[in-house]
Amino acid sequence: MTAATPKPWFLYLLECAGGRIYTGITVDVEARYAAHVAGKGARFTRAYPPSRVLLSLTFADRSAASRAEYRVKQLSASQKRALIAGKFVCDFGDVGVDAAPGLKGRAAPDE
């Protein structure tokens, strides 16, 4: 018998009331977004209801997603918006993100 393949975890960013950005992790982005919209999510999203999912990144496990969440939460709002727009690349190092690796804290190169 083989071991079950672990479910991937997701780091997600939501646009909330007042232009605020909420960052979280989950195994099911759609279900978690629905919980936030229904007022069953984090205290932050109860105070500032979300309007849409801005970004979702896939990670191998909860630990990797948590480390990436910490790194994203250290970014300023303008850096988060640049990350969403693809103009800022956050180096997630060894956390196993299924996205192209980038330069830590630098603007993405113009194409």
Low-confidence stretches: 96-111
What CATH calls the topology is GIY-YIG endonuclease
Instruction: Assign the structural class, choosing from mainly alpha, mainly beta, alpha/beta, alpha+beta, or little secondary structure.
Output: alpha+beta
Q: Give the integer mean of the pLDDT values.
A: 83
Number of domains: 1
Strand order of the largest sheet: 2-1-3
| Helical proportion, percent range | 25-40%
Q: What is the approximate shape?
A: globular
DSSP, total strands: 5
Alpha plus pi helix count: 4
Radius of gyration (Å): 15 Å
The N- and C-terminal alpha carbons lie at a distance of: 48 Å
Helix-strand topology string: EEHHEHHEE
Describe this structure in words.
The protein has 111 residues and is α+β, with helices and mostly antiparallel strands. The protein has a single domain (9-107), classed as GIY-YIG endonuclease, CATH 3.40.1440. It has four helices and five strands, in the order ββααβααββ. The strands form two sheets. Strands 2-1-3 form a three-stranded antiparallel β-sheet, with helices on both faces. The protein has a two-stranded antiparallel sheet with strand order 4-5. The N and C termini lie far apart (48 Å). Pfam families: GIY-YIG (PF01541). Belongs to the UPF0213 family. This is GIY-YIG nuclease family protein. Residues 7-82 form the GIY-YIG domain.
